[in-house]
Structure formats: C-alpha cells, structure tokens
Amino acid sequence: MKKKVISYDDALLRLLDQRFLPGREEYRQVRGSREAAEAIEDMTVRGAPAIGIAAAYGYLLGFLETRGMELSGVKRHMRSVREKLQGARPTAVNLKWALDRMHGLFETLPETSDTAGALLREAESIHTRQIESDIKMGEEGARLLENISGEKNRKLKVLTHCNAGGLATGGIGTALGVIKTAFGKGLIESVYVSETRPRLQGARLTCYELSGDNIPFRLICDTMPGYFMSAGEIDAVITGADRIAANGDTANKIGTYQLAVLSGRHGVPFYVAAPLSTFDPGTPRGDGISIEERDPSEVLEIGSARIAPRSASARNPAFDVTPAGLISAFITEKGAVRDINELQ
Ligand code: MRU
Fold first, then answer.
1. CATH number of 6-129
2. What is the Å distance from ligand 1's center to 71 Cα?
3. CA–centroid distance, residue 241 to ligand 1 (Å)
4. Model confidence, pTM
5. Cβ < 6 Å from ligand 1: which residues?
6. Average pLDDT, stretch 156-165?
7. Which of 112, 105, 99, 92 has the alpha carbon at shortest distance from 43?
C-alpha cells in the first residue's frame, strides 16, 4: 500500500475513503468523535484492525470535545463517545479491544495529567503495534507456505477472500500480508481473489492492493472456489478474521465458512491470519458472536443498479462463523498454531 490508510495529526483524522476505491483515491477528513463513528459505520474505513485504530483516534477526538467542561461532564461525554464508537459495528472485536484500552487509560489518569497527550500516545501505540504485528504475521505465514511449496517443489496458487490487506490494518495486512511476504520470497505464482459480494471488498480492494504491489492475481466470483479446488488449482486459502472465540471458532466476512468447508473436502490447508487483538477470550464459542446484518439493498443492487425484481426481498449477514476444527492454523504475531490454547 503506497497510500496512507489512516493518519492523525493536530486534531484531524484522515481516512482513505474505501467506499470509492478503486475508482477514486479520496481522503475523508474527520474532526469529531461522532463523525469517526459514522466513518466506521458507513465503511469509509473497514477491516477489523483498521476500525479499532480509527476508533482509538476517534476517542481522542472525543476527548478534545470536552474543553471547558467540568470533570463530571467530561466523564459522561467520554462514556457516551465510547458507546457511540463501539456501537458503530458489532462483529469485529478489535473495536472493543481498542476502546477498552483508550477508556481504561482515560479512567486511570490523574485529573492534573496531560490527558490528551497520553490518549494520543495510546492511539499511536495501537496503530504502530498493528503495523509491527502485520510484519510478524507475514513472516510466520510465509514459513507455512514455504513448507507447502517445498513439498510440491513449485510456486503456489493461493486464494484469499474479502480484503485483509493494508486497507484493513494500516500496515501490510494480515492474510494479504502473508501473501505479500511469501511473494517477496518467491513462493507465490498467483493469487485467486474471490469478489466478496455484496460489498465487493475482494474485487475492489484486494485487487487494488495486489495491482499496486505487482503481485499476479485473478479475480473469481464467489461461486467459483469449489471448481478451482476440485481442479487442484488452489494450494492454500488464507483469510483474516473479525473475532476469534475462546474455542477458536472464527467470525470473518460472509463466505469464509463455505471456503473452509470446501478446503476440508479438497485437502487444501485453510489458514486464518489475525493479530492477538482479534482474539476474544470473553466469548466462549462462535455462536456467541454477534453477526452484523446489513441493509438488504446491498444484495438487491450492485452499485446503484437494481438486479432483482422490485418485489424481491433479501437477507444480508455481513459475517459468518467457521468452526475451529476446519482451520488448519492460526497465524498470529506470536507464531502460527493449530490450537489456539498453544498461544497462552
Ligand atoms: O465488512 P468488512 O469489510 O469490515 O470485513 C472485513 C473482513 O471480514 C476482514 O476479513 C477482517 O476484518 C480481517 S481484516 C485484516
């Protein structure tokens, strides 16, 4: 990613507006906590780690709104800022993780301290930690792909779904970071990108990133992975995650579960790359993860063109849950493991 996805300077949060990519590279300038929450909700910024980072800066903007307020008013405002930001999207736990850190810090700071400075340093550290984690995940995941490439004695064709790249993290990405690192080591022949209906994060965003990095790829429809797996054309599948429950069940973009089932059927390794901030020990199993249901118009239309009869109705869950047993390994900044208990 050559473009900066998220940046903050002098009370201004700048977000590369992902709603318009790849057609327009435009920045949205966010000056307040309410607008930060709107930008997360309307998917100006999206991807689990990126919304956590944007929320951290949004929380800081919220604090800057309290100038001149009495302490009780400041505390009330910060509770409502946290609630508004956290309510922007329900599934990715990184949002809660980042806000817990920001609000936890706010609550422990003495009244006399430089609160804005401390909150800025915390938001920056959340941002930097993600950039560093991406690099480590890239190395860990590339090692797994190196083994497969060694066994097959050739470069690999890998499939990824949605966008788990720099646009989703502000760094090199999680799943796409693994692919970029492995490509740099000469292990990847090409990438299959599933289009990811309804919002087309694969077609619009992952293809945009791979083009920018000169990594060979083919866009395929969401209906095609079974065909390519049965033809032996896919050596591994790598996706990101939005929330990983305590037992390893993993919520990610709708369509991930069917990819994991197909991978199991065809003996294709299915990897999930995610930072530790995506692991949610507070949710025991996948059925406890809240799944965002978005507007049916996203299914009934492509762009603004209606594709179904006026009388049609639709369902639009944005995520699904892949049972832990279908996941060959979790790739994290602390190593790649088959069983997430090995991370503790
Ligand atoms: O609805 P989105 O675009 O925010 O969904 C994004 C995904 O599902 C990603 O795969 C996930 O957040 C991991 S991003 C590193």
1. 1.20.120.420
2. 37
3. 7
4. 0.97
5. 46-49, 92, 162, 164, 168-169, 174, 201, 239-242, 252-253, 318
6. 98
7. 92
